[in-house]
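User: Teach me something about this protein's shape.
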Amino acid sequence: MINPKIKKILLLIATVMLALSGLLGMVNPSANAKAQPTHDNYLKNVKKKGTLVMGTAPDYPPYEFIGKNNGSSQVYGADILLGQKIAHDMGVKLKVKSMSFDSLMVALRTGKIDMIIAGLNKTPQRAKSVDFTNSYYTSGTDLVINKKDKNKIKSYHDLSGQSVGGQVGSVQYDLAKSQIKNVNLKGMESVDDLVLALKTGKVSAVPMDASVAKAYVEHNSGIMQIPAGFSASSGASSDNNAAFSKGAKSLVASANKTIQQVQAKHEYTDQFVPQAIKHMTNNKNQSVANSMWSYKDYFLKGTEYTIMISLISVCFGIVLGIIFALMRLSHNWLLHAIAVVYIEFIRGTPLMVQIMFVYFGLGAVVNVPALTSGIVAISINSGAYVAEIIRSGITSINVGQSEASLSLGLSQSQTMRYIVLPQAIKNIWPALGNEFISLIKNSSLASIIGVGELMYQMRAVQADTYQGIAPIAVIMIIYFIITFAISRTMKFYEGKMNHGTNN
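Assistant: First, the predicted structure itself:
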């Protein structure tokens, strides 16, 4: 026989899982496509809101990259200019959202963006999920290798059994995986990280778009590009296409009209690319220190966002932690079960997944901005850990004190408020400090959805300066300064608490 309380908890867990699966069914448009056919009002809706939201991964110069604009960062590139023209022809303004390349498809399918232009190649698999426009530009695939290996590596055939880097979700990644024999393929989200891995000897070559390879080779000493020699048997195309939601025929038709005009006038190659190159920074003759100092505004802005996210999240996390700690200690089986499910589920799933679920999943039902989504997800995550910290602090207080306060006429809530919690907080103060420090470091994961905190700004500096290690060193120092200051502050107040107790 199953214990009745355990049975109730299992039923509650099953109910929660059913609710989540129902929500995911709402989020995934393809899941309900057959049951709920929709009319194509995409273009009408875009015109109604007055903006066309374009998603891109700005680490792909000269197509899309982050550059300076009066001390702040801005996304530039030939693809951005194309997006502006497509939006102009629709009679709306273009809004650009930056995120990691492998998040773009999810963002499009969950309605966070209306269009993808990111040097995207059409493949049979992708065509099942989204609708592509006609090609607006055709480029080849090259290999970027170290100059010292120019006599060893002549094409992809020479990479058999070696480590090769590729951008996750890209056609180049798939080509390397399918055509290089016994390859040790290392997938990364950022092209900047791939180039850094190449220069530090972590990989022997990186396949990438020929124009992008040229941009990185021109701004990095010690590397070169060679023809990759891949065959097109995989069905992948070297054509660059814009992508829209599946069934958005009206948007595709409108974009195709613009693309047809652009191709007829050779605007992409003759105007957009040269105009984009003008915004690309050349730091070859500038020292690393001067180069990093010129981007101080980027790092200051990232620090501001990091501290803001952390402070707000820790406040909400403490409130949630107290509530769920008391619920878990409650003798009410329902409150106890809800607290257990929340704490164990949140602690059992990665924070990055939680951030993506809040932004892409719940955001498909309620439009939540990236910054708000990051704060909500980090607060919920912190709340689960704080709940366990507070619970351990409460249980560390001798039960005799609670019994004594009750015998003196205090209620249970007064006992908890005036007797137990103050002592528990003193006991758990070091653990709360560690949680706050961990939360500051974990805030870097919000960069995956385009929140402009320190990690995001570091990527922006990498993309604009083509320097891989220096920006990383800068944010390491900034993170250390922030966490060390917090650590000393927490230690100071811990000493004050101990001093007050001794007196």
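Now, about its shape. Residues 18-38 have pLDDT under 50 and may be disordered. The chain is about 55% helix and 15% strand. If you'd like, I can walk through any region in more detail.
User: That's plenty for now, thanks!
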